[in-house]
């Protein structure tokens, strides 16, 4: 698969309009093959995660962002279906409330970062503080620029202290979002997911794309890369996210810890 072309090159200009939400990026064109490939990669991720957990050394943070219906929940469900729940945690971020408001915007985020041996998936994240907050005019351009610098430095600190960070922008088209929202209205099993405020965000689509463009371009770094994942097809999205994650985990060269015990002294009677 052509994963490198999904990477937002650090320091380069980003044009989201050249990222086609229907692109296969080298994924198999037929769905059954994609699903088979996904289950192969899931098994690889499970094996890698077992070593990550056993080693209790590396920390892995995955950030999922995207417009409503882009599939953040579905990605978590499918990509992490095989991993050991003891060592993976998903954390969703909604609008800050209660004591969260009393602190800086990174406070609640920092408290949720992975510990050694753990994978944490952020379903939305500190990026909302330069996306929805910016689009809704709660901060101006100069405050947004300051936050982008702070986020860069925050993520750099996490990386320098042993955290592998991978960030995914699930890129759906406005048309596909329209179909999925309509489906939430029509399908009684999906109506619980429908939130009328999603329509408000949809009406500012271009502002969101501009905010995403700035955020991704300014914060994609070698220690915290952004990948733009074509997400109009769910199975393609799941496969591409899995493949990137598998590659990132492989690059850690994980091994089971070597025991210091001399096993010739042990015999089970
Ligand atoms: P959902 O992910 O669909 O459950 O919705 C969560 C909502 O919380 C979305 O509408 C987000 O835009 C909103 N949200 C998340 N983080 C923030 C934030 N830091 N400030 C304001 N709104 C936020
Ligand atoms: Mg929602």
Structural account:
The protein is α/β, with parallel strands linked by helices and 269 residues long. It has one domain (3-254): 3-Layer(aba) Sandwich (Rossmann fold). It contains nine helices and five strands, in the order αβαβαβααβαααβα. It has helices spanning 31-55, 72-79, 107-110, 132-135, 141-160, 174-186, 197-203, 205-219, 234-250; strands at 59-66, 88-92, 119-123, 163-171, 226-230. It has a five-stranded parallel beta sheet with strand order 2-3-1-4-5, sandwiched between helices. Helix 3 (107-110) links the parallel strand 2 and strand 3 (119-123). Helix 1 (31-55) packs parallel to helix 9 and helix 2 (72-79) crosses helix 9. The chain is globular. The model has no long low-confidence stretch (mean pLDDT 97). Bound molecules: adenosine monophosphate (AMP) and magnesium ion (MG). Residues 68, 93-96, 124, 128-129, 132-133 line the site of adenosine monophosphate.
Kindly report the name of the CATH homologous superfamily. Answer: P-loop containing nucleotide triphosphate hydrolases
Mean pLDDT: 97
Unreliable stretches, pLDDT < 50, 5 or more residues?
A: none
Amino- and carboxy-terminal Cα gap? 51 Å
Instruction: Give the helix/strand class.
Output: alpha/beta
Biggest sheet, open or closed, and with what strands and sense? 5 strands, parallel
Let me know the number of strands. Answer: 5
CATH topology: Rossmann fold
The rounded Rg comes to 20 Å
Number of helices: 9
Strand order of the largest sheet: 2-3-1-4-5
Name of the CATH first level:
Alpha Beta
